[in-house]
Amino acid sequence: MTELMQYLQNLLGVAWLPVWTLVKILVIVVPIMLTVAYLTLAERKVIGYMQVRIGPNRVGYFGLLQPLADGLKLLMKEIIVPSGSNRFLFVSAPILALMPALAAWAVVPFDDGMVLADVNAGLLYILAMTSLGVYGIIIAGWASNSKYAFLGSLRSAAQIVSYEIPMGFGLVCVLMVSQSMNLGDIVLGQSGSAGLLGWYFIPLFPIFVVYFISGVAETNRAPFDMAEGESEIVAGFHVEYSGMAFALFFLAEYANMILIAILTAIMFLGGWLPPFDIAPFNLLPGIFWLLAKTSFMLFLFLWFRATFPRYRYDQLMRLGWKVFIPLTLVWLVIVGAWMQTPYWLW
Amino acid sequence: MEKIANFFKSFLLVELLKGMALTGRHFFARKITVQFPEEKTPQGYRFRGLHALRRYANGEERCIGCKLCEAVCPAMAIHIETEERSDNTRRTTRYDIDLVKCIFCGLCEEACPVDAIVETRILEYHGENRSDLYYTKPMLLAVGAKYEEQIAKDKASDAKYR
Amino acid sequence: MLMSFETLVFYMFAVITVFASLRVITARNPVHAALFLVLAFCTAAGVWMLLEAEFLAITLVLVYVGAVMVLFLFVVMMLDINLEQLREGFWRWFPFGALLAIIMVFQMIWVLGNRQTAETGAQVIKHAANYSNTKELGRLIYTDYVYAFELAAVLLLVAIVAAIALTLRRRKDARSQEPDKQILVKKADRLRIVSVVVENKENKSQ
């Protein structure tokens, strides 16, 4: 393996670094895209099961080829650009939506040292990237030249900007506790002999809950999916989109979901650390634990969607500004004070 | 006191967790989906599906062209033209049902004095354009010929309620 | 002379920033102008990143691009702008605007062309990989510049309070709902079940 790498390095010379980085990016992005595809199937299956149905099961065994069929269908469809729309912005909006959702993965560590870019300001970078996702939506709504799309994008933009604040405060708490903005160091800060008790979700439990719920709101998922609001504004910001352009929005939404899930796993649930540092648990590779935790958080996304009715818009804003932000601020002070006492164990 | 209880109730998300427990239980419940082409829901003998025109056992068509069905049809889906046949009986030359208009109320079946027009249990017919769903007399007679056995049996089971 | 990769990246960012800034003031559609401003912010963040100021660069993206510009776009998109009307007063205000621009150019030259600032700014100090710009910034803010920082914080707080005080008005006729009270309502509070005595026995039997 190392010999092969050495050989390739000599062969490519200066081009080695870009090529090798590109390979690493592909190794991250291709599984994400596959996960996104199968997350759509998992969503339909889970929601079906919770509604005492069985979900898709016709295309392939257990419906396993369904995502491919859906993708193929969307690929074959025509992309219709509305006549009154701004062509350039209309086409670039889905790309703008997907790009930050994928770019954020650059700093996500999958195991000890298994990370594309080990930057010190990882946490800030994540926050900045997730806040950029709103542009795809806002531009899509405006460029479509449709009032439904515009209303959807306004709702979504206000929602994302509002819920970024509790998320940001949540990250500040994590930052205070771990004393680092490097996601790898945050996970390592949760390691120790106590196993599961050393993870940050215990001292930061309210923050953990607020962060995850804000994450659900940030990704415009049910019960906070007013941006789409099928029953009121037909499909919100992507009502005018068809074919692959629509598929890109879909990919962006699900990639964001996976991102929020894996970030919650990394920051609050100990990332790649096993729950108990004893024989059967710590023999499994770290990435298995990370993916197990991520899958659990993703399951929660689907569970929420199957359970809760959609929020009303004013209630959503009230929850964000009047409940979550004060709650996170209070807990920020509590944690700050707690960390100065000898009772701080983390 | 109640206020404090409510405060904790809302902050501990008790009601949300209850809701999630309910859906969580249903996740493991037995599924009630009917896998359509392989499994079918039971049908009653009064099921109202695709129409058919019947014949007597000797091959004579039952329809006498009284146009009662045409008159009673609330969707005006039936169109009938009649003339006198060589044996001085009145017979239809045209008997068309537009299945796109039909609402499957079964009134034509009720109105028919000779049990000529009936609705069968067939529900899986299709057409690739609108004209495919415009059933003419030969088509209706063909349906009747094909499913006569089933139709007769259903009529017999319903007879005692009439 | 061969440019180093870093210089190349700097010039790329610089050219895009200048182009985007020019388009901000020349674009006819205000939404396009706002989007070009977003582009300018992003590339400016890239330039800051080259100066190893990653905290400031990311904060620029986070605050200006992620929040401020979103609200800007929000307002601009909802305005019903008549471009003809906007361009009417152009020549009347042109001398004033030109004067302002010239003053600003001279100020920039004065600051940037000053030997003192030019000397310190010319050399970017390279740091080791484990150097954290964020930590350094935090240390400086909470030690050397703590008074200035606290003053800025108080100023912002005053601004927040003032903004809320200016816009908050309690309307007595507004019938807004209070969801926290709504969800506490119980059946017993509103519904009273009375047993009605039925007088006519014949009706009862029916």
TrEMBL record, chain A:
It catalyses: a quinone + NADH + 5 H(+)(in) = a quinol + NAD(+) + 4 H(+)(out). InterPro entries: NADH_UbQ_OxRdtase_su1/FPO, NADH_UbQ_OxRdtase_su1_CS. It comes from Candidatus Nitrotoga fabula. It holds the Pfam family NADHdh. Belongs to the complex I subunit 1 family. One of its GO terms (cellular component) is plasma membrane. Its main location: membrane. NDH-1 shuttles electrons from NADH, via FMN and iron-sulfur (Fe-S) centers, to quinones in the respiratory chain. The immediate electron acceptor for the enzyme in this species is believed to be ubiquinone. Couples the redox reaction to proton translocation (for every two electrons transferred, four hydrogen ions are translocated across the cytoplasmic membrane), and thus conserves the redox energy in a proton gradient. This subunit may bind ubiquinone. It is a multi-pass membrane protein. One of its GO terms (biological process) is aerobic respiration. PROSITE patterns: COMPLEX1_ND1_1 (PS00667), COMPLEX1_ND1_2 (PS00668). This is NADH-quinone oxidoreductase subunit H. NDH-1 is composed of 14 different subunits. Subunits NuoA, H, J, K, L, M, N constitute the membrane sector of the complex. It comes from the Bacteria. The chain crosses the membrane at residues 12-39, 88-110, 122-144, 156-177, 197-217, 254-274, 286-307, 319-339. Its EC number is 7.1.1.-. It is found in: Cell membrane; Membrane. Coiled coil: none annotated. The keyword Metal-binding does not apply. Keywords: Cell membrane, Membrane, NAD, Oxidoreductase, Quinone, Translocase, Transmembrane, Transmembrane helix, Ubiquinone. HAMAP family: NDH1_NuoH. One of its GO terms (molecular function) is quinone binding.
Automatic annotation (TrEMBL), chain B:
It is a peripheral membrane protein. InterPro entries: 4Fe4S_Fe-S-bd, 4Fe4S_Fe_S_CS, NADH_quinone_OxRdtase_chainI. Binds 2 [4Fe-4S] clusters per subunit. NDH-1 is composed of 14 different subunits. Subunits NuoA, H, J, K, L, M, N constitute the membrane sector of the complex. [4Fe-4S] cluster 2 binds at residues 73, 102, 105, 108. This is NADH-quinone oxidoreductase subunit I. Keywords: 4Fe-4S, Cell inner membrane, Cell membrane, Iron, Iron-sulfur, Membrane, Metal-binding, NAD, Oxidoreductase, Quinone, Repeat, Translocase, Ubiquinone. It catalyses: a quinone + NADH + 5 H(+)(in) = a quinol + NAD(+) + 4 H(+)(out). It is an enzyme of class 7 (translocase). It comes from Candidatus Nitrotoga fabula. Belongs to the complex I 23 kDa subunit family.
UniProtKB/TrEMBL annotation, chain C:
Its EC number is 7.1.1.-. It catalyses: a quinone + NADH + 5 H(+)(in) = a quinol + NAD(+) + 4 H(+)(out). The keyword Membrane applies. Coiled coil: none annotated. Keywords: Cell membrane, Membrane, NAD, Quinone, Transmembrane, Transmembrane helix. It is found in: Cell membrane. It comes from the Bacteria. It is an enzyme of class 7 (translocase). GO terms for cellular component: plasma membrane. The keyword Disulfide bond does not apply. NDH-1 shuttles electrons from NADH, via FMN and iron-sulfur (Fe-S) centers, to quinones in the respiratory chain. Couples the redox reaction to proton translocation (for every two electrons transferred, four hydrogen ions are translocated across the cytoplasmic membrane), and thus conserves the redox energy in a proton gradient. Belongs to the complex I subunit 6 family. This is NADH-quinone oxidoreductase subunit J. It comes from Candidatus Nitrotoga fabula. The gene is nuoJ.
